[in-house]
Amino acid sequence: MKADLLEKISSRTAVVSVVGLGYVGLPLAVEIAMAGYNVIGIDINDKIVDKVNGGLNYISDVRDSDLSEVVKNGRLHAVSDFSIIRGADCIVICVPTPLDLNKQPDMSFIRSAVRKIAKHLHSGTLVVLESTTYPGTTQELLKPVLETKSGLICEKDFYLAFSPERVDPGNSVYNTKNTPKVVGGIGRASTEAASALYREVLESDVFEVSSPAVAEMEKLLENTYRNINIALINEMAIICEQMKINIWEVIEAAKTKPYGFQAFYPGPGIGGHCIPLDPFYLTWKAREYDYHTRLIELSGEINQYMPQYVVERVYKILNRYKKPLNGSRILILGVAYKQDVGDYRESPALKVIELLEEEGVMVQYFDPYVTDFTNRGKEYKSQELSKEILNKADLVLIITPHQSIDYQFVQTNTPFVFDTRNAMKHVKERNNIELL
Ligand SMILES: NC(=O)c1ccc[n+]([C@@H]2O[C@H](COP(=O)([O-])OP(=O)(O)OC[C@H]3O[C@@H](n4cnc5c(N)ncnc54)[C@H](O)[C@@H]3O)[C@@H](O)[C@H]2O)c1
């Protein structure tokens, strides 16, 4: 049976289903289709299904022409009905794994997808989970549901593996196709089948590990490492400001060391769907083993304090000009969670805006990638970055350093800028700029 599956994968006659067509699933579905496989995307959101079938791109990391080509040539189509799984040889799951209000893993999306897959699973199929999750999910949650509901046995009748997605939205060098992939199957056959699929589709190396739990933990290590290092540099930035030392210059100096140092940069907080959330998956699972992940939680605490810290600095700047927060006008540049993307999920900008508005600040924003957004029931619309709006603002607050913004124009036309990202590093005249 494994030989049949491997043959279908290598001859590209295997039908691949990608479940969840968001930031991770759509780029993957397009890559698999471009590699010559027939791909069926499954998403519970009908609007997304219609967009895919209409060739309408909604993910910036996917090229419009690539999507329209694979839809036109019939390699990719989307549905919301899971019964199509009956015709799939490989199924890759890319559904969300958020935290609930109490910062506990919300596994409802995975559970629901896996139950529906199990109903239609047939022998000889490979199932891979890519969603970020706690170590043990594939073994403890997916395997029993798939086996019980389908009556099939893992490693004998079907194959199951975990392979973490590493997509870095907005990264112009590394993408789904050329980022090395880690694969850990329930057994040797599962690892082999999953690796075979990725080796056919991607240009990158596939690194095999001994179990799904290793692959799940590996992903959490990557993101926890970032979380902790960002917290460290944020703490350094806070103390540097008190000591009147420029943290950005300190980092540039430290970067000259050719080994043992990797640069991280301070900022107004962390955002997106990975770094603020993933470490809590580990924290939650560790409790099962009576272990309290102190360092991870402390770094979360420091990073979560950053929006508040930014508002305290804004208050001090305005105070210097005898302006209270209440009634002042602040123009925020960039609300996306990171540079050059339009994703504002968990963005620190949302918290900064919330805190400023609580103090009576009139907040406006400009973001070339986020034309509008809603936060806590209130709608916001991006303004035009005009001389007039810059002139009227008591303070321009840079939260996200989008590269397409003309920072020289900003500096020339506004009274004062608080730059939390060193976005204006190339601007020569600096008498109205303060750095985090
Ligand atoms: N976005 C990133 O940069 C990134 C990077 C690495 C890993 N991840 C991880 O990948 C996973 C997916 O993240 P994303 O950013 O693509 O999420 P997303 O919200 O952009 O997309 C998820 C899609 O899944 C669909 N969906 C939800 N439940 C479903 C179900 N039961 N069946 C079918 N479709 C369903 C949603 O409608 C949505 O279209 C998460 O675990 C995330 O942590 C994300």
- What's the assembly state of these chains? single chain
Estimated share of beta-strand residues: 5-15%
Fraction in helix: 40-55%
- Cα gyration radius (Å): 24 Å
Specify the CATH architecture of the largest domain: 3-Layer(aba) Sandwich
Q: What distance separates the N and C termini?
A: 59 Å
Biggest sheet record: 8 strands, mixed
Give the uncertain stretches in residue-range form.
Answer: none
Shape: elongated
- CATH topology category name of the largest domain: Rossmann fold
Helix count, per DSSP? 14
Q: What small-molecule ligands were found?
A: nicotinamide-adenine-dinucleotide
Quickly give the structural class.
alpha/beta
Count of DSSP strands: 15
For this structure, what is the CATH class of the largest domain?
Alpha Beta
What does this structure look like?
- The structure is a single chain.
- The chain is α/β, with parallel strands linked by helices.
- The chain folds into two domains: 209 residues, NAD(P)-binding Rossmann-like Domain (Rossmann fold, 3-Layer(aba) Sandwich); 205 residues, NAD(P)-binding Rossmann-like Domain (Rossmann fold, 3-Layer(aba) Sandwich), CATH 3.40.50.720.
- Helices cover 41% and strands 14% of the residues.
- The protein is built from 14 helices and 15 strands.
- The strands form three sheets. It has an eight-stranded mixed β-sheet, with helices on both faces. Strands 10-9-13-14-15 form a five-stranded parallel β-sheet. A two-stranded antiparallel sheet has the order 11-12.
- Helix 8 crosses helix 10 and helix 8 packs parallel to helix 11.
- It starts with a helix and ends with a strand.
- The mean pLDDT is 96.
- The site of nicotinamide-adenine-dinucleotide (NAD) has 26 residues, from helix 5.
